[in-house]
Amino acid sequence: MAAAPEQPSPARVVVLVSGSGTNLQALLDASAERGPAYGAEVVAVGADRTGIEGLRRAERAGLPTFVHRVADYDSRPDWDLALTESVAAHQPDLVVSAGFMKIVGADFLARFGGRLINTHPALLPSFPGAHGVREALAHGVKVTGCTVHFVDEDVDAGPIIAQAPVVVHEGDDEATLHERIKDAERALLVDVVGRLARDGYRIEGRKVLIP
What we know:
Elements: E1 11-17, H1 22-34, E2 40-47, H2 53-60, E3 65-67, H3 76-88, E4 94-97, H4 106-112, E5 116-120, H5 132-139, E6 143-150, E7 160-167, H6 174-199, E8 202-204, E9 207-209
Parallel strand pairs: 1-2, 1-4, 2-3, 4-5
Antiparallel strand pairs: 5-6, 6-7, 8-9
Helix pairs in contact: 1-6, 3-4
């Protein structure tokens, strides 16, 4: 009897968090529920601060964690290098910035450029930066949404992988709108990470092509 074909090893994913870690939890749940068919597995979680729920989620899942606070380093490049080395120690295929509130630097991008994924609560290139939900609402848009993109040296400007629309309701405030965007964001991130891991991808200019 012929041997069954070997199941490909899941893509190794390191997730970076700064807060509650709901996007991290969505990835953990997808991997647990779908098993090898999902194609990706979180292997470590890093943070820029201690005492956050994101780290507790990782610990409950039995994952190794590491923390690098900017204040503990003499310079931002020193912090960036330390973060790079900690992530690299886990040999990731993909790195996910899941609510990670720090901008990585040259060392990190040199090592993980084209593999570092970020989410943003607006339809880029509209409303980049820290206040995308507030600015979209103030602008009076009828539809906003979320974007999953690769990170480059500019803020929220890397190649777009996927987007999901979210309708703005009459009477929405920043909090209510952001909650619905977060729901869409979690689903989109889970889908994107799985597709990239299972199918592979290439980046041509500003386009991300997934077979």
